[in-house]
Design goal:
single chain, about 220 residues, five-stranded mixed sheet, about 15% strand, rod-shaped
Length: about 220
């Protein structure tokens, strides 16, 4: 009977040992699994942290660019002649929404009445404009746009104001191209009396409407 008791105790101890050993094995597996998950999460955290830092730096750089562009836009609005490089002596306008710079030359500066041949005295203004276009706006599309007042053509020999405005625009275009502006970057447009900026009922208004615009497209 005593032997049976010892055998029973030994059997219980063996079962306990096996169970304990098996439990240790399971805990070891769980530990290794959790450790791997922890290392994976840590690696993911470090990668995301690095990406977050790179994103923050990129955002900072873009914000700096935006601030610089905003500053340039304000300069263009307040002093377009100086900011664009054409100078304060020129009638320069900047249109942010259209992305254009427009230099306006009154027809009296460029042409005699009813004429489309450039005056010799215009070379100073046009040479300066061509120089700025070539140095500061290479590759940009440039439109040379002619305008007239609404007075009908009587003695100058043109068919109408459309023809006169077109020929004046072409005269300016040819001058700029001859001085080095690329032919594929410039085009001439004649508007006749169709786009007045002032009333054609007064001599002063008519004078403002007779002009040639040089439009630089920034977009």
């Amino acid at each position: 009977m005593q032997m049976d008791g010892r055998k029973l105790i030994s059997l219980v101890l063996c079962v306990f040992a096996v169970t304990a050993f098996s439990g240790c094995t399971n805990w070891r597996g769980e530990y290794d699994k959790l450790k791997n998950e922890h290392e994976n999460l840590l690696g993911r955290y470090k990668r995301e942290l690095g990406q977050k830092g790179a994103l923050a730096e990129e955002l900072s750089q873009k914000q700096q660019i935006i601030d610089e562009l905003q500053s340039k836009i304000e300069q263009l609005k307040q002093s377009p002649g100086r900011a664009t490089g054409f100078g304060e002596d020129y009638d320069v306008a900047f249109d942010a929404s259209a992305g254009t710079i427009t230099v306006t030359l009154q027809s009296t500066i460029l042409f005699s009445a009813g004429n489309a041949k450039l005056k010799k005295s215009t070379s100073k203004e046009l040479d300066h404009i061509q120089s700025v276009l070539k140095s500061k706006y290479p590759g940009r599309q440039v439109d040379v746009v002619g305008h007239t007042d609404s007075d009908p053509i009587k003695l100058s020999g043109w068919a109408d104001n459309w023809e006169l405005s077109s020929e004046r625009a072409l005269s300016v275009l040819r001058y700029l191209v001859k001085r080095g502006l690329a032919e594929d970057e410039v085009r001439a447009v004649g508007c006749g009396a169709g786009r007045p900026v002032d009333s054609n009922a007064t001599p002063a208004g008519k004078a403002k409407n007779r002009k040639v615009e040089i439009v630089v497209h920034l977009k």
